[in-house]
């Protein structure tokens, strides 16, 4: 049983951790689960087990993965903590002894733990590739679990070839099956670099290229197109000097400028990377990107500045909302520059595309949004039409009692037209303290859910999810 938690906004309401692992072979269903939807839908997020040390941050919770197994119109569910080294240690001693966000605040006797930890928290995202389910957290190597039982297997390092972390946002090329990912600060804490890795469709790590950056920066997501790998370096800087004197290790420093590394997909390295200047805005997540005739297009949810982090003086800035924006980068020019245009007047986050159209010209995206025009709890799912920047939206319930997380698109069949299929979302009803899986027709969001699979527990606010098709 989880002990009492301290007062903290990330330990209350829809964020509050749950204290049990459930296994349900069959969930009660309202409506009808489409018979052509077969596979597993995953959600991953922080779910701290023991009362945390220090001022708890959402990013510091022990990872918990939730799996909905969908087969022949039925839905099963299970959730499991990811049994990282920190989780196992604290389980043994029966209390929180590690502060993963501050190595200097671990209980006496565990001072070295964070410095030597290989597993991290496994609390951010997941990817299914080459027959392996990997749970991700950008500061550490991936953590492998069984895709059905969610049993923890351990850190996965591609037979010793992977010596860096893995971003929480690796990209799978739908045409080649290749997995491309990066790690920032890849040669050590606060180093000014990132390393790009490629893994072939069989799961063999084939290349790793380290590229120096203008300064040490936190980089959350990136973009891959048919011919380029695009890594934006925004001035969310990392500083050992600040950390050593007790100031913010990561801070927003717009005066340091922003630039974007454009790396050739084939044979890309530090020498042939081109750096493109852009204004110092910020993006956590990209929807997709493609290139055509040397012009790169990138779509992402863009903030005016990095939220959740202080400036270099340690002052937190007001909340700021992200808006879907389209970049154009003309690589035919001698000195290309990022031209960014906001294409959606409504704030949104967690952008997704039809995965069969990743890295290529595409027409449809999906996103999560608050209804109304302010920031706030996400209670709405949107389908965005990139041909005319219009959108169709569905509101799951009132914003003060309903929360939804990142939606995942699953195509109806391998050869269905782009955007034809289903959108899967977890929706939480705060008054009943329960969550449910909503299965939506991606071409008719307004029609409401095709099926709702109801849980007796709540899935706490998490970050990302994923899909494993049946038989893969
Ligand atoms: Fe993310």
Walkthrough of the structure:
By secondary structure, the protein is mainly beta. Helix content is 4%, strand content 41%. It contains three helices and 33 strands. Strands 2, 28, 29, 30, 31 and 32 form a six-stranded antiparallel sheet that branches. Strand 10 (171-172) and strand 11 (179-184) form a beta hairpin. The longest helix is centred in the N-terminal third of the chain and has 9 residues, at 85-93. The protein starts with 22 loop residues before the first strand and ends with a strand.
Number of strands: 33
Coarse morphology: globular
Count of helix runs? 3
List cofactors, ions and other ligands: fe (ii) ion
Oligomer: single chain
Contiguous uncertain segments of 5+ residues: none
Largest sheet: 6 strands, antiparallel
Q: For the residues shown, what is the average pLDDT?
A: 95
Determine the strand fraction and express it as a percent band: 35-45%
**Backbone structural class:** mainly beta
Q: How much helix is in the residues? A: under 10%
- The radius of gyration over CA amounts to 21 Å
Ends: how far apart? 36 Å
Pfam families: RPE65
Family: Belongs to the carotenoid oxygenase family.
Keywords: Iron, Metal-binding, Oxidoreductase
Cofactor: Fe(2+)
